[in-house]
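Narrative summary of target 7.
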Amino acid sequence: MRTCRTLILLALTGLLLAACAPAASGTEIPTAVPGCGDGVCGAFEDPLSCPEDCEQASLSGKTLTTTITSEGIGEIAVLVAYPETPRFPEGAGVVVIVSPFFTEAGGFMTEPDFTSIGLIGVEYFVGQENPTVDTLSSLEIGHYDEDGLPVQNPFYAYPAGYSPSELTVNYGTLRWDAEYTDENSHFIGRPYLDLDGDGLPGEADQLFGWQVPQMFGKRYYSVKLTQALLDNGVLTSETWPADLATPQEAAEAWAFRQSPPRYMDLALKTPDMKVMLVFARSDHAQVAVDKPHIHQAFQGFRFAALLRWVRLNPDRVYLQQFTASSGLDFPDNPANTQPEDWLEIRDWAYPGGGLAGKLASLAALAEMADRAHPARWDENLGDVLYEYTPSTPQP
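Modeled conformation, tokenized:
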């Protein structure tokens, strides 16, 4: 079995599926989804964002809960799960899962069940829809409303507002609605863009959603939005809400929780790492058509980090290994290729959500484990490299 490598610059801000280490991008914020509580686990729901509708799955392998000591933090709970049957004759690869980072979670993540494909790590990283910069983590480029409809920020447009290191948004009309109380989070007050110029929040304005990172007991918007609240005279040091991060706090927190400044470190620390980015046509939280979180990650890993193998979504044959019918319209993007126009990135994404998202994650990890085992890094595959047959429980 190949030796696992520790990746140092990682652990930033997102839901990651990583091998042998926390990975280099941000965790996706559990989305407040419409329909939560109706008894149906919909496409935008999961056990963390809506536990009342989505049952926490159990792992098929054996489990052990333990703790590790982290300097400056204390005891960190760790769930160790291992399969009944290892994926490879000489053992099982190791997978480290970094759960949602910005909000409190009720227990360990157990979906998708990676023990079901014989894995508990190798020299690769699999990231699923990870935000890369603070404006994406705070859902300021756009979000889904309570009806599940995308709300686009009119002040972000591709390609003018995009760069590999940041996304440009005009906060000149930023205001603060002090009368607002959110029924989900119970936060009082929220920012909005006063598009009609009447000084009052309304349907004609850009109303930011409540699903923002919560750290250290406060809401954290992007550095630029937070600073604009002060610069525009919307809030002062005397009227600043106690549960809202100040400009200084936002700058300190986001300084090491964004991906673009850290990609170059990979060229020195892990030059042989392989990367797969997993994403759907309709993302779990992000709504921008050009998918800037995927674009920045691809460019960062491939060109800033100078990694030699970066792929957008798994090989079609690996999804078909799980369910042939779902793989018929699944993309098959060779490694190290990207759209000529990122407004067409949906054609490179897998369709659907819910079960399709879980299968895509399993397919991605199975493919990367199988590629790493014999060091097969072709740009594309015609067949799966390893047929895994889990053991059948005996009565």
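Residues 16-131+259-372 form one domain.
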